[in-house]
Specification:
The protein contains 13 helices and no strands. The protein is mainly alpha-helical and 309 residues long. It has one domain: Na+/H+ antiporter like fold (Up-down Bundle), CATH 1.20.1530.20. It starts with a helix and ends with a helix.
Length: 309
């Protein structure tokens, strides 16, 4: 129990403090969140992705295992949520929000900061989380988008959206320069490192600012509760079973298990708002799962250390 308390104090509390600071600042100053989000998406996050992949050596076999696991995990979650959605007799819009809220994980401005705090001494753990984040972004703009607007969005338009994402370019460039062992001059590496260092704090402050805009009213309803349980409990359970099935262990198993425990992606709420499909329900799920994750993520981090540490 002491170890759980230490995880909550040293990993979750720092994250919550930055989220609360973001919420308080947003209430006081009403930031232009789109501008801050653009700073994060087009500058700080690509820098963090690039630096971590540049300095980390990932075995090809390990990389294949990670992608195989991620595909299997996503497919199982999609099937499970489809079955639960039918059992709950949700209408088409609610079903889309429910499936997205469980399948799409906040691997960016929640997952990477957690990994940076947990794996400070092991860049592999952070790099695995980056791979998960990129995979999740692809899933968001394919499956997630399909759930909401399958009748209005073509495959080519979805592909264009993906190719415009800076983290894709940063991942390819960082991995390529790492593989070719190309040295980066200090006058370039220094500013890139500073940008990467800024990512953690700004990402969590932005998350807090976004959550501050979500209405608390009617937050406790059946769909929100089941969605949060699906994301925070069913997700890690599926992950653990697959990790044992794939025979993964060590930092790889620990990173993937922890990555499965994060709350619902803010992108699920953004897409729902953009296409006007139960946007309040999507936003409330993001808020509720994020608050509840303080407890569940602590437990998963503890369990991962016991099983794979």
């Amino acid at each position: 129990m002491m170890f759980i308390g230490s995880i909550f104090l040293n990993v979750i509390i720092p994250i919550l403090l930055l989220v609360v600071i973001g919420a308080v600042l947003q209430k006081k100053f009403s930031f232009n969140l789109r501008a801050v989000s653009n700073l994060l998406t087009y500058c700080l996050m690509p820098a963090a992705v690039f630096t971590n992949l540049y300095v980390t050596e990932i075995d090809v076999q390990v990389l294949l295992e990670i992608f195989s696991y991620l595909i299997a995990f996503s497919l199982v979650v999609i099937v499970v949520t489809s079955i639960i959605g039918k059992l709950l007799k949700l209408d088409k819009g609610e079903s889309a929000i429910f499936k997205n809220s469980v399948s799409l994980i906040n691997s960016g401005n929640y997952g990477i900061p957690v990994s940076q705090l947990l794996f400070q001494a092991n860049p592999l753990g952070i790099s695995i989380q980056i791979i998960v984040m990129v995979f999740q972004n692809i899933l968001t703009y394919t499956y997630g988008l399909y759930n909401l607007i399958s009748a209005t969005k073509s495959g080519l338009e979805i592909l264009r959206s993906l190719l415009k994402m800076p983290i894709i370019h940063a991942m390819i460039l960082g991995g390529l320069l790492n593989w070719l062992q190309v040295p980066i001059p200090e006058f370039l590496w220094s500013p890139i490192s500073h940008l990467a260092d800024a990512f953690l704090a700004i990402a969590l402050i932005l998350l807090g600012a976004q959550l501050a805009q979500i209405q608390f009213k009617t937050i406790i309803n059946r769909t929100v509760l089941v969605s949060s349980i699906g994301r925070l409990i069913i997700g890690p359970t599926v992950s653990l079973l697959l990790i044992f099935l794939f025979g993964l262990d060590g930092v790889v198993a620990q990173s993937l298990f922890i990555a499965s425990s994060f709350p619902t992606s803010r992108n699920s709420s953004t897409l729902a708002l953009e296409y006007d499909v139960y946007p309040d329900l999507a936003a409330q799920t993001v808020l509720f799962s994020t608050v509840l994750s303080a407890i569940t993520v602590t437990f998963v981090v503890y369990l991962s250390a016991v099983l794979f540490g």
